[in-house]
Amino acid sequence: MFILAGEHDPRCPIRQIDNYVAQLAALGKAYHIYRYEAGHGALVIDEQIRQMELEVGFASRILGTNTPA
User: Is the separation of the CB atoms in 49 and 42 below 8 Å?
Assistant: First the structure.
């Protein structure tokens, strides 16, 4: 599971994400979390690009495909 989490998200507070991740870990489930300094979604273009790169890279690893250049 890939989780994007805004540190200052009022809709889904980071504490909820921390609790969810702790439960995943307790169950031995695989996950990758990326935290960013924003609220519910990033408005900074560079951050949006970074998140998309992480999402595509994660999907590529899970599917066993080559990451696009």
Answer: no
